[in-house]
User: Which sequence fits this backbone?
């Protein structure tokens, strides 16, 4: 644990400096490792009671949205390979996810790495199932916008994705593979639709309730789920001035984030992208 005292100068807005104290739930050495390798492991960071609550919420969502995500199943046809089910806008769909918005083990690290003014880029989930259909993901990145050649004032895109695993990561449920340091590579991209091993990859096997914090440009893949199901939540933060993710689809008109905004909490408004930037 360490404490960072930020002083954000914003006289151009006519405001006094913003003072924000962040109690970072990581050591300086761990933050250095995250910067260098592109990932940080947090084993069993979610207790049993909260884990069961999040699992139940994902299961409710799976039941409610299954027909929309898997229409081919009703028609007797399924693909040979897929990423399983992907759900967006979790804050709008179940209040069980609301505590994740300001959850210190994730948010404090985001503020330590990217500054005190961050926003939620997205809160989504992925569920994969064992069976005949292979459900995994190829090597990929989450935030990749790089020009070649690099302009003199190019700003590398930075974001943090917190991969929260509600089921054990193992060879049956599907482990996670990463390539340490790949988030720093600005001259190449992961091979398209490539599912096989890569040189220097590291495969992570972790207990349920664990979190892997990654830089969004880290090369990573999910190995196939062979038995049962594998539930994960992706909690993503960016600097507050970045626009919302284009991959999130349309949020529900009567989403539950309206309840969060009704509190008039400036930190909540900042995290939801309404304040903190100009």
Assistant:
């Amino acid at each position: 644990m360490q404490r960072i005292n930020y002083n954000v100068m914003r006289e151009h807005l006519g405001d006094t400096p913003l003072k924000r104290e962040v109690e970072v739930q990581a050591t300086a050495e761990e933050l250095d490792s995250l910067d260098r390798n592109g990932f940080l492991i947090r084993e069993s960071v979610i207790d049993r009671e909260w884990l069961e609550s999040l699992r139940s919420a994902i299961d409710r969502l799976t039941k409610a949205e299954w027909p929309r995500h898997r229409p081919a199943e009703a028609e007797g046809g399924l693909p040979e390979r897929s990423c399983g089910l992907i759900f967006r806008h979790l804050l709008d769909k179940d209040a069980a996810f609301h505590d994740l918005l300001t959850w210190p083990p994730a948010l404090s690290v985001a503020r330590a790495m990217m500054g005190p003014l961050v926003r939620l880029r997205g809160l989504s989930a992925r569920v994969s199932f064992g069976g005949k259909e292979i459900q995994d993901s190829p090597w990929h990145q989450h935030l990749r916008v790089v020009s070649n050649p690099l302009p003199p004032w190019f700003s590398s895109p930075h974001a943090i994705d917190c991969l929260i695993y509600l089921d054990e990561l193992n060879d049956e449920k599907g482990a996670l593979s990463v390539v340490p340091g790949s988030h720093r590579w600005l001259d190449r991209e992961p091979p398209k639709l490539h599912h096989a091993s890569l040189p220097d990859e590291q495969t992570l096997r972790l207990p349920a309730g664990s979190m892997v914090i990654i830089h969004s440009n880290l090369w990573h893949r999910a190995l196939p789920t062979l038995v049962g199901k594998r539930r994960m939540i992706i909690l993503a933060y960016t600097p507050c001035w970045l626009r919302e993710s284009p991959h999130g689809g349309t949020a529900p008109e009567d989403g539950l984030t309206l309840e969060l905004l009704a509190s008039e909490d400036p930190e909540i408004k900042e995290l939801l992208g309404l304040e903190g930037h100009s």
Summary: The first helix runs from residue 28 to 37. The two ends are 31 Å apart (CA to CA).
